[in-house]
Every structure is written in C-alpha cells, then in structure tokens.
Design a protein that fits this description.
It is globular, with a radius of gyration of 24 Å. It has 450 residues and is an alpha/beta fold. The strands form four sheets. Strands 7, 17, 18, 19, 20, 21, 22, 23 and 24 form a nine-stranded mixed β-sheet that branches. The structure holds ligand LLP.
C-alpha cells in the first residue's frame, strides 16, 4: 500500500499486530485506527496531534479508559474496584475514574492527595505501602481512610497515632502469600522473599495483636501478588491461601468486612501473547471466594486494585525521529528517552512501535529505536521490522498508559512532555509540557556561590 492510499472496501490486510478492515477507517488493536495511512487514536490523527502539541507527547483515548473500567466492573459486579493510582496518576484520568465510581489504591500521601482532589471518596481509598512515614499514617487516620498494614512495627506506630488523635482506623494486613505470579522478578510482589507484607504463618497472630490495640479495628485482609500476570492459576492459588487465612481469622472472632485481592492482570503488549480477560480473572477468584465465604457464613466485600488493565492500552507515546544512523544496527534516534517511558530499559518490556505517519503493512528494514539519553540502555525497541524510517517521521509507542508518565523523570536535563486526552476527534491538553525553567524548581544557591 502506498503512502496515503486507501485500499478498496472489504479487503483485509494483515499488519504486524494490526488487523486492517478496509473501510473508510481501519482498526488497530480495537481502539486505534488508520486513516489515510496515518495512525488515529480517539478519532484524532496522530500526525496532526504531533504538529499541534509537539513531541514527545502522551496521548490518551478517553473512551478506552472508560470501557476498560466498565469491563472490570462487569466482570466483578459485586466487588469494589480501587484503581491503582500509581499506574497513571494524571489528574484527568483520576477524575474520569472517580466519576465512574472507582475507588483508589494509593501508595503515598501524594497519591492520596490527588485521589481526594479528583473526587474519590475517602471510604473508597486504601492506603498501601511497605514503608509509610508517620506523617502519611497520621494523614490516613485524620482523613479516615483504610490502611493496609505491612508489619507489626507499623501496626504499633499506627495504633499510637490513632490513639493520640482519639480516632479508630480500619486496617487490613498485607499478606505475603508466597505465590509465584510467573512474571518479571521486578514486579513479583507475593514471593516469600519479597519486601511486601507479613508472612502467611504470622498473620493470625497479627490480627490477635491488632484486636487488642487501641485506635485499631481490623476490618479486612489484603494481598497483591504481582503485575503483568498472564496466567490465572496464581490468582486462584492466592485466593485459596487468603480464604484459608480468612477462615482462621473468623475463627478467632474477627469479622472481616473486606478481602482485597490486589490485581496484576496483564495486557497483550506483544502480538500472539494470550492474556486472561477480566472475566477470566473473575473466574479464577470468584468461585473460591464465594464458596468459602458462604461456607463460613460471612459476607465480606471483595476489593480489586487494577491499574495496568484500566489504562495500559489507552495511551500512546508519540515521538519524532531526530536522526537515522546506519552503524552495527540501523539506529533511529527519537526525541523521547527512558526519562519518559522507562519500562523497556527497566524491565526489558516490549512496546509495539508504529510509524504513525506511514502505517504500512510491510516492514522494509530492521531498526533499533533509541532515545537521546546518555545511557546505552536507552532503547525502546530492538531490531524491529518497520517501514522505511526518515528524519521527522513520527513514531508511536503503543500501550504506554500504565507506568509510563507516572514513572517519568527529568534525567539528563529533559523537562517532561505534555499529555493530551482525545475523544471523538477532539484533543485537550491535560498536562502542559514542562519548560526548561522547571529544571531549577526549588533549587537555591548558598550565599557563597552567588
Ligand atoms: N495493588 C498494589 C498493592 C500494587 O502494588 C499494584 C502495582 C497494583 C495494585 C496494580 O497492579 P496492576 O493491575 O497495574 O498490575 N512499573 C511496573 C509495574 C509495577 C506494579 C506495582 N504495583 C511496570 O511497568 O510493569
């Protein structure tokens, strides 16, 4: 297919991961389309967005966030969905999810602050974290949110803080269930050796202790085994282990009001990878949860904390080609670096690359896409077969909505990029591009250096 030419209606062209139905608008990965050989997101032509807002640029499809959230809610109709704010803490996204009735899993006071500002009610927030400051615990108590307690040490600190404020805080213990999620080691969180949670064998005693302490009411139990999980068996194993604990805790006279199973559902970053759907995730958890609660005669609420599934595939990172160099490899130097999307450098993650201004079916050469950061590991994609790439082409890194902007930095003196939200072909800036003055933010010179 030539640049800019449409194919005749009804014809099907198979792209790398792109299935193109030749009508006026073609489809890539459900919510991405091709129009006039350009990549289109939320009805907006990405090459126009790049011109209008500059690059690098994060672009999020609003409708996709909503439909992903709905898919989760439909799969778990009786559960509370606490969106994991760490995945993408952009204010507009938190606001959209608040309006959908989402709660929040927050991991810092900063995330709590943003979630509250976005309109998520305190009753629907759980404060997670393995190393919270006294300030954070105090804020949680003052605001009246639930706290997932990660150690006995933290339990005692929290009890003292709550007592001194004359308040009662509802807690869950974060359990380390010793379950392998079969995912990347850096995002496996429920292994015996992981830093998170209390070993299963010590959990019942922890509840006994919590029950005696002032300022504390043990209200729930919590675990989270990892992220980008592609197999449902670990979810079932974790639910069984958690329900064994629920049985023991019920046996000592504590009536748990919620069981929080965390999240971790993966998304298909790469072609051909089979990932469970939210419904399959539900099938792995609900039968065990429902049968065991029925047998015990209790009715705790189930909580889930999805992050990646809600936002991962909603967003692309647009980046402009600065330079193409033939060396040991065909290096394509782009204007985004790992300061904006660290996942490939940090976890060797795959993100699909599309030449947004020339979405051709056939690759023409093999390219390695690299950023401008002074680090050898600043590589987005290795040896990808892509259409001919030239200076000023616009590349799109797909599935960049989870742990993309939220893990960004200004490394190498690079202000962060802008973010836009698109819906029905309209684009709104939801975060301005940082200007260079931001690099001086908060910095001061001692008098002797003036
Ligand atoms: N709940 C807790 C307690 C968590 O620690 C996490 C993620 C989540 C929920 C949400 O998990 P999700 O549904 O997104 O898998 N930066 C890594 C992922 C780190 C996940 C941290 N915890 C990445 O880019 O793959």
């Amino acid at each position: 297919m030539e640049k800019g030419r449409l194919c005749s209606p009804g014809k099907k062209i198979s792209y790398n991961i792109i299935s193109v139905n030749c009508a006026a608008m073609f489809t890539i990965k459900d919510h991405l389309e091709i129009r006039n050989n350009h990549l289109v997101i939320g009805g907006a032509d990405t090459t126009v967005l790049a011109e209008q807002f500059g690059t690098p640029l994060y672009v999020t499809n609003e409708s996709r966030v909503i439909s992903n959230f709905s898919a989760y809610r439909t799969a778990f109709p009786d559960a509370h969905i606490y969106y994991a704010a760490k995945a993408n803490g952009s204010f507009a996204i938190l606001r959209m999810l608040a309006r959908q009735g989402a709660g929040a899993d927050v991991f810092s006071f900063g995330e709590l602050y943003m979630a509250l500002l976005a309109g998520i009610p305190p009753q629907k927030i759980l404060f997670n974290g393995n190393s919270k400051t006294d300030f954070e615990l105090q804020k949680a108590v003052e605001i009246g949110i639930k706290v997932s307690v990660d150690s006995l040490d933290e339990l005692h600190t929290l009890s003292k803080i709550a007592d001194s404020l004359g308040k009662i805080v509802e807690i869950a213990f974060r359990v380390n269930p010793d379950v392998s999620p079969k995912t990347h080691p850096k995002i496996s969180t429920g292994l015996k050796t992981s830093k998170f949670g209390i070993p299963s064998g010590e959990v019942v005693d922890a509840y006994k202790e919590a029950d005696k302490l002032g300022g504390i009411t043990p209200g729930g139990i919590h675990c989270h085994i990892g992220s980008q999980i592609l197999d449902t068996a670990p979810f079932t194993e974790a639910t069984q282990k958690m329900m064994d604990l629920v049985e023991k805790i019920t046996g000592i006279g504590i009536n748990l009001k919620f069981v929080d199973m965390g999240s971790g559902l993966g998304i298909p970053y790469e072609k051909g990878i089979k990932v469970p759907t939210p419904r399959e995730h539900a099938k792995a958890i609900l039968p065990v949860f429902e049968e065991r609660t029925r047998a015990l005669g209790i009715s705790p609420k189930l909580i889930l904390e999805p992050g990646r599934f809600i936002v991962g595939d909603t967003t692309i990172l647009l980046t402009r080609v600065n330079t193409v160099k033939k060396a040991a490899k065909n290096f394509v130097g782009v204007d985004a670096g790992f300061n904006l999307l660290v996942r490939p450098a940090m976890y060797d993650s795959y993100h699909h690359v599309v030449v947004a201004n020339n979405v051709k079916s056939q690759g023409e050469d093999t390219y390695t896409i690299v950023g401008p950061i002074c680090e050898t590991g600043d590589i987005f994609a290795k040896d990808r077969t892509l259409p001919q790439i030239e200076k000023n082409d616009i590349l799109a890194l797909l599935d960049a909505g989870a742990y993309g902007f939220s893990m960004s930095s200004q490394y190498n003196g690079r202000p962060r990029c802008a973010e836009v939200l698109v819906k029905d072909g309209e684009a709104d800036i939801i975060r301005s591009r940082e200007d260079f003055e931001v690099l001086l933010n908060g910095q001061k010179l001692p008098a002797r250096l003036m």
